[in-house]
Amino acid sequence: MEDLMNELRNLKDFTQKCLTEIKNDIHGIFSSISSIEHKLNSVENRVVELENEQQILRDDIVEQNIRVDSLFSTIESVENKIEKAEQYSRRENLIFYGISESHSESPQAPK
């Protein structure tokens, strides 16, 4: 009977030791999960920040595209004005030999 009691005490001690180890393991797991949750929250916050920055950059790109289109339009307008000025300059610099020039005539209605 004494052996049985010793065996039961040993079993009880072993069980308590195992339970203590399991509690420590569970505590470690909970600590790891808490750390992972914290890191996950940090990553989620960073993703939100990056998405916001990305949206700002997209908006900037749209604005820059509008500005570039406006500049191209302005360049085209200036090129047209330059072309007209060059044509007018060439027209006014024509010299016709053998035809007398009259100051009363206009270039649009020659006689």
TrEMBL record:
Residues 33-88 form a coiled coil. This is t-SNARE coiled-coil homology domain-containing protein. Keywords: Coiled coil. It comes from Elysia marginata.
